[in-house]
């Protein structure tokens, strides 16, 4: 078989994998809205959505169709191009982060070994940080282009929040990188397969990363850019129809991908404890690994929702104090302690 034919096969494999990952991300984000409403209903002693389809399972489809067919309103005083670009950029950056997540080990089909990862790059974590940093432009552009003072104030809040908490998140990851010696997410997962997960070595780093991930996703109690009580609806106040849907969907996709990153870095990714000794077919092991990975992700998503409906929203000064005066010093201390332990052990 020629090299050109092999390249075509690889391209087709990657395109199929991209289509599967994007579809799965959208479906999971769509039904995360349903799960959110059900979790809130249980915590508030209500029933939740139960009219559209059995047990209300068609409610996300009904909500999506409603957003698609609602009238699209663009304010006359807004910057039309940037007004449209904002939600598109938020959605694009949310989807781009899934490219470096290893969803499973590998499967063999027709004699070919297919990696269950779109792109295994040796700087995967830097790629995630770079794309997440671009995501804040979706909020900033949307808030500024709306030509609404409340939207602009909310967008400034969102930018300040993301910049502040990215520092603590990055420092917390430096300690993990010192232990693993790699920026590749695939390599970090493979180091944990059949061994102790990184959460054992880096519990403080994981806690910092988890708190920062909530702030990066604008999830309560860190949803200051969407503070309805003081800024009406926040940075997407002037949006309607599917542009508003893009902003809302990107939040749930970010929550899904953040959960996948945390499961990969600290909880072994697709690793299933004690399964390595089982004599199972490689493809079956890969499928079990994918299912286990999704279970870990769904547990994190549930915790995100649980916290949202349990804790009240912070004040803005409390948000900044937590980021700069608590999380960053704690992340620095964790990094230094990790460095000392590695030095003494080596």
TrEMBL record:
Pfam families: NADHdh
Reaction(s) catalysed (UniProt annotation): a quinone + NADH + 5 H(+)(in) = a quinol + NAD(+) + 4 H(+)(out)
Subcellular location: Cell membrane; Membrane
Sorted UniProt keywords: Cell membrane, Membrane, NAD, Oxidoreductase, Quinone, Translocase, Transmembrane, Transmembrane helix, Ubiquinone
InterPro entries attached to this UniProt entry: NADH_UbQ_OxRdtase_su1/FPO, NADH_UbQ_OxRdtase_su1_CS
Stored PROSITE patterns: COMPLEX1_ND1_1 (PS00667), COMPLEX1_ND1_2 (PS00668)
GO biological process, alphabetically ordered: aerobic respiration
Function noted in UniProt: NDH-1 shuttles electrons from NADH, via FMN and iron-sulfur (Fe-S) centers, to quinones in the respiratory chain. The immediate electron acceptor for the enzyme in this species is believed to be ubiquinone. Couples the redox reaction to proton translocation (for every two electrons transferred, four hydrogen ions are translocated across the cytoplasmic membrane), and thus conserves the redox energy in a proton gradient. This subunit may bind ubiquinone.
Protein name: NADH-quinone oxidoreductase subunit H
UniProt organism field: Deminuibacter soli
Lineage: Bacteria, Pseudomonadati, Bacteroidota, Chitinophagia, Chitinophagales
């Amino acid at each position: 078989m020629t090299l050109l034919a092999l390249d075509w096969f690889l391209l087709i494999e990657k395109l199929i994998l991209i289509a599967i990952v994007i579809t799965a991300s959208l479906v999971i984000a769509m039904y995360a809205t349903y799960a959110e409403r059900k979790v809130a209903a249980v915590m508030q002693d209500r029933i939740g959505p139960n009219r559209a389809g059995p047990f209300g399972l068609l409610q996300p489809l009904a909500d999506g169709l409603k957003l698609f067919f609602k009238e699209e309103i663009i304010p006359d005083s807004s910057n039309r191009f940037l007004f449209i670009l904002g939600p598109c950029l938020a959605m694009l950056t949310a989807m781009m982060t899934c490219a470096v997540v290893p969803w499973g080990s590998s499967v063999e089909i027709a004699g070919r070994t297919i990696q269950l990862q779109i792109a295994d790059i040796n700087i995967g974590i830097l790629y995630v940080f770079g794309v997440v940093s671009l995501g804040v432009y979706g909020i900033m552009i949307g808030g500024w282009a709306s030509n609404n003072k409340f939207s602009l104030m909310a967008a400034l809040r969102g930018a300040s929040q993301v910049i502040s908490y990215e520092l603590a998140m990055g420092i917390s990851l430096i300690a993990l990188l010192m232990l693993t010696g790699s920026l590749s997410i695939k390599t970090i997962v493979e180091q944990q397969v059949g061994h102790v997960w990184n959460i054992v070595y880096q519990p403080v780093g994981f806690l910092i990363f988890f708190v920062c991930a909530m702030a990066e996703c604008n999830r309560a109690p860190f949803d200051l850019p969407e503070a309805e009580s003081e800024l009406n609806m926040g940075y997407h106040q002037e949006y309607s129809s599917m542009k508003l849907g893009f902003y809302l969907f990107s939040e749930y996709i970010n929550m899904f991908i953040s959960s996948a990153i945390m499961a990969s870095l600290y909880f072994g990714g697709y690793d299933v404890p004690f399964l390595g000794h089982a004599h199972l077919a490689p493809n079956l092991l890969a499928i079990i690994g994918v299912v286990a990975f999704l279970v870990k992700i769904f547990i994190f998503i549930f915790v995100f929702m649980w916290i949202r409906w349990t804790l009240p929203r912070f004040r803005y000064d409390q948000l900044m104090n937590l980021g700069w005066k608590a999380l960053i010093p704690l992340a620095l201390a964790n990094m230094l302690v990790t460095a000392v332990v590695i030095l003494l052990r080596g």
